[in-house]
Amino acid sequence: AKKIDVRLIAATHKNLEQMVKEKSFREDLYYRLNVVRIETPPLRERMEDLPELVDYMLQRLNKDRSTGTTEISKEAMTILQQYDWPGNVRELENVLHSSSVVSKGKRILSKDLPDSLTKFLKGENKKGKNVAKDSNSESETKEQQTTDRVVEKEIAPVAPAFGLESLSGKKFAKDSDVSTPSAPSSISPGESYDIAYAHARETSRTNLLEVVEKEMIQRTMKESGGNQVKASAMLGITRATLRKRIDLYGIRY
């Protein structure tokens, strides 16, 4: 008999530990496989990798299947970045393969993408529409509550020092006044900037941009439930940049 040296690499998207507890996966096999463990986050949590993955897959598809499609338009890429990818990298590869077959040139256009994907993003799925509507309504309510709270607790006491005598026709109390008037029920966008600026000036006489940026990231992370993908999309930055800012400012959420 000949001896052979074998290294086995196994991959799965299942929770093997849970399956072992449920007796649906052999415990002895699990421990034989689980020597060096590498966990790869799902695609939706590393969207900054999407452009490179798309480029790699298009080049490979063209090499293996002679699709003739090696590029993707900005519009199509934007759609891919907005999708949640429940099927992970394999679903991405399937979408690119399908789009390459449909495409009439070397570049995938938004119209070449599968209808199921574009319809999902447009909210034509009834469930998706309801969720989006409820989410927006809840977000607007939270935003208004946050604004009113900031005006009442933080801006009113310091407003005179920064030349803010009133907002929406409501006068702030002077230093000599005993009582503080209640916060206005609504404010204009311009007054919102006054609030943010006054708050930043109260926090720091310098580095105003850092104060505002840190506050925005903290609030966005809280609103997104700690989801960095959603938060980075709301802020208009990449997830990698968001992670750097979180580490830089020591943000906890």
From TrEMBL:
Pfam family, one: Sigma54_activat
Matching InterPro entries: AAA_lid_NorR (IPR058031), Homeodomain-like_sf (IPR009057), HTH_Fis (IPR002197), P-loop_NTPase (IPR027417), Sigma_54_int (IPR002078), Sigma_54_int_dom_CS (IPR025944)
Record carries keyword Protein biosynthesis: no
Protein name: Sigma-54 factor interaction domain-containing protein
PANTHER family the UniProt entry points to: TRANSCRIPTIONAL REGULATORY PROTEIN (PTHR32071)
Keywords: ATP-binding, Nucleotide-binding, Transcription, Transcription regulation
BP GO terms, sorted: regulation of DNA-templated transcription
Region (Disordered) residue spans: 124-148
Domain Sigma-54 factor interaction: start-end pairs: 1-101
